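Sharing a chain and its predicted structure for anyone who wants a worked example. Both blocks are below, sequence first, tokens second.
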Amino acid sequence: MKYKNTEYEVLSPTGWSNFDGLSEVTRPEYLKILFTDNSYIECSLDHIFINDNKEIHARDLKSDTLIDSYIGKKQIFHIDYIKEDIQLYDLINVEKEKLYYTNDLISHNCFIGSSNTLINTGKLRNMVYTEHIESRMDGKFVIWENPKPNNQYVLFCDVAEGVGGDYSTIQVLNVTEMPYKQVAIYKDNLIKTNVFASVINTIGNAYNTALVVVENNSIGDTVLTCLNFDMEYDNLFYDNKKFGIRMTKGTKRIGCGHLKTFIETDKLIINDLNTIEELTQFEKKPNGTFSAEKGKYDDLVSPLILFSLFMANDNFVEIWLDQENTLRKLYSKAYAEIEEDLLPIGFFPESMDKEETESNTFF
């Protein structure tokens, strides 16, 4: 629920500021953060505070962390995780620097987007994120749906240098039926290309040997080489010329157009708050291209552009389906030969734990 503001201002670090309105949401969990001066604040796990002029989510806070406030720095004494419903409120589109004071603390507002964003502002206002079911790999891999048998998954990957700037990212999408669904993401800006290839290999195999699509720029080509030759990943997209897909200004523009259609017509469901936040800051530039607003990132949006370009291209999809059918025939033939030659009836000892033979361990 959202309330329109027409008469109030809010105090920000640079003075009083206009804002568009108030967002009210119900969350099934929250954090109660107690400070050394005995003040406290209750907020969602994804609420954004400021620490030394850098954004930090509440879920990443720790005891002794210093938070920027109206009176300087406030030190966290203790954090309680509370598993119960709570009504929470956030300001929308604070005009000055998108920052405002909450209980004397500097908070980052709920930014819904401007008229220049790729996705229609009205659609952005109604996008609702979903709490993930678990996270792994030190919180870098976040999951909304574990792999389901007979479901079709695709990994779309964007590769960065791993030096603390842009992020290497993976969007895991369930494309079994429409609407397509975002089921997991991976994000890390310090991971090296060979290690990132290993992460893609692990996640891809877990998600039913998912098709892996990588933007094959210079860094992406290194990851594709690792996946193909070193790790022998079985389901890399190949367009009869080269592994991966080349992204140019022209193809990016086409992909952006298709992404806009997918999201605005509810053919693609986004569950991740960080992805939604990037979409609210993904805006049109004077030269007609789209990218993140200054000082922000669009590394989770980039794989979605690749996804949209891929899924809207009949030629790409046809190549993929032919590739899938070929792989299935090869696997079926290989498994039949193995069963005939090596697995006679009674191969498993009766003493073997039944659960061990039927387990399908994820990672």
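Comments welcome. The helical segments are 121-126, 193-206, 218-230, 249-264, 273-280, 301-311, 314-342, 354-358.
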